[in-house]
Amino acid sequence: KEIVLTGITTSGTPHLGNYVGAIRPAIEASRQEDNDAYFFLADYHALIKCQDPARVQQSRQEIAATWLACGLDPEKVTFYRQSDVPEIAELNWLLTCVTAKGLMNRAHAYKGAVDANTADNQDPDFGITMGLFCYPILMAADILAFNANKVPVGRDQIQHIEMARDIAGRFNHLFGEHFVLPEAVVGEEGSILKGLDGRKMSKSYNNTIPLFETEKKLQKGINKIKTNLLEPGEPKDPNDSTVFDIYKAFATPEQTEQMRKHFAEGIAWGEAKKELFKLVNDQLAEPREKYLELMANPAHVEQVLQAGGEKARVHARKRIADLRSAVGLVNFK
Ligand code: ATP
Question: Which CATH architecture has domain 212-292?
Answer without folding.
Answer: Orthogonal Bundle (1.10)
